[in-house]
Amino acid sequence: MAKQDDLDNHANQCNPNNDEYWNSRDEEKPDDDHNSQDDDDDE
Fold first, then answer.
1. Beta-carbon neighbour count of residue 3 at 10 Å?
2. What is the pTM of this model?
3. For 1, what's the count of Cα atoms within 13 Å in the CB-facing half-sphere?
């Protein structure tokens, strides 16, 4: 089963949506707060 764990870890480290991607690069995941706010310019 260790091989599957290695594959999962590798996949996580290659996926910018996964926290492990940022941890493996010693960086913090950027905030996505600006994307979740309503945009009033559409009116």
1. 7
2. 0.58
3. 0
